[in-house]
Amino acid sequence: MAKELVWYAAYGGCLLRERMAVFLKGGYCRHSDRMYPGCLNQSPPLEARPYTIGYPMYFGNRSEFWEDGGVAFLDLRFEDRGSTLARAYLITPEQFEGVRLQMNADHGWYDQVVDLGELEGYPIRTFTSASPHPCVPPGNRYKELLWRGLKESHPKLTELDIRTYIGGAIIL
Q1: Is the pTM above the cut of 0.85?
Q2: pLDDT tens, residue by residue, 132-150
């Protein structure tokens, strides 16, 4: 019997492998200046690859960990009005839930799991908020984290592509 796995489609800070590793292994995240407990299963993803989610991204709420700026969410109301660049990580369902719980530890903003279909026989999932939040531009530290994650996960993107992508998400 094949091991149960899931693709986690990360579209925010976990685009960057370094940040995803902190959620899995635990420890200090230099980007958000915080400690995370990690998952019970601290093994790295079996695979990671670029992925595109069929919903637009926007920045909402105000996070004290990100210079009081907005953080990334999917807008589930507009499935055909844009897409979101992501990185799919092949992990266990328990790791997926562990990452989600750590992201929800302070505010509970990521309360909706979204099923995105299948890839190579495994389900693709992500999470977002069940209800829309007020749009708030991200702070510079969060934009820098997204920039690095996009450059790393989608290396063919130019600086202009990334600037346009992040700027377009702000005004949804």
Answers
A1: yes
A2: 999 999 999 999 999 999 9
